[in-house]
Design a protein that fits this description.
By secondary structure, this protein is an alpha+beta fold. About 35% of the residues lie in helices and about 20% in strands. The chain has seven helices and nine strands. Strand 4 and strand 5 form a beta hairpin. It is globular and about 70 Å long.
Length: about 230
């Protein structure tokens, strides 16, 4: 009885400590997004073991891009992207922050190749957000995924790209972690204007924004807005 009483007392003390820690963690920036991703990964693993279908991201992670195609097309379209915090919780959190800041409004698709199209630099010059830590690469950079650009370890800021092709062999090994995938409208992404290729200068975009791009590269497609 005495032994059992001591065990119960230790369990109660441990439970109280864990409850206090959980209460503090809930106030930490980014914790809930990371927790959501961990839960999804764990849930997916359990479901796989039991032979059940893996539960996809919640509907509140479906975002809509409204796009002005410009170029020779000069039309408008929508792209729906399903964010995947189970793949990249830090990346999804940063993306949602950028949407909240309005940084994607009139953001030009300023860098384009046959494999990727890049966007995310604000239309008007502003402070570059702090770099965020890398997420592990939990899925490949296949066609239709959306990924943050980066220049090295823990260097993601606000530039993203859509994969137009299967770039897994090129990007996965270097730590480029997709944060979501196109659910509808990949045909719109395929119509982004790519005639200028890599000519627009990123540093000029950061300093001058769309004033520079509109003057020298008027046909660029633009992300009119992104809605969560």
């Amino acid at each position: 009885q005495l032994h059992k009483s001591r065990k119960c007392r230790r369990a109660l003390l441990l439970g109280a400590a864990l409850a206090a820690a959980a209460s503090t963690l809930k106030e930490c920036p980014g914790f809930l997004a990371i927790l959501e991703g961990r839960r999804a990964v764990l849930g997916g693993a359990i479901a796989a073991l039991l032979g059940a279908p893996v539960v996809r991201a919640a509907e509140d992670n479906l975002v809509t891009f409204t796009v002005n195609l410009e170029g020779d097309d000069n039309g408008q379209g929508q792209v729906k992207v399903r964010l995947r915090p189970d793949w990249a919780p830090r990346g999804v959190l940063r993306f949602k922050e950028l949407v909240g800041f309005g940084d994607f409004k009139d953001s030009a698709v300023f860098y384009a190749t046959d494999k990727t199209v890049h966007f995310g630099l604000p239309a008007a010059p502003s402070l570059v957000p702090a770099k965020i830590k890398d997420d592990p690469v939990r899925t490949s950079n296949r066609r239709g995924t959306i990924t943050f650009a980066k220049s090295g370890r823990n260097s993601r800021e606000n530039q993203l790209f859509f994969n137009l092709d299967d770039n897994s062999a090129l990007l996965d090994k270097d730590g480029f972690a997709p944060i979501g995938e196109v659910a509808e409208g990949m045909e719109v992404v395929d119509r982004f204007y790519r005639g200028y290729g890599k000519k627009p200068n990123r540093e000029e975009v950061l300093v001058l924004g769309n004033d520079y791009l509109d003057k020298k590269f008027p046909k660029l497609s633009k992300i009119q807005d992104v809605h969560l």
